[in-house]
Amino acid sequence: MKHIVVLTGAGMSAESGLNTFRDSNGLWEGHDVMAVASPQGFRSNPELVLEFYNQRRRQLLDVEPNEGHIALAGLEKNYQVSIITQNVDDLHERAGSSNILHLHGELLKVRSTFDANESRICKEDLTLGDLCKKGYQMRPDIVWFGEDVPLITKAISICEQADILVIIGTSLQVYPAASLMHYAPPDVPVYYIDPNPAVTNKMNLRVIKASATEGVKQLINRLNQQH
Question: Which residues are designated catalytic?
Answer without folding.
Answer: 104
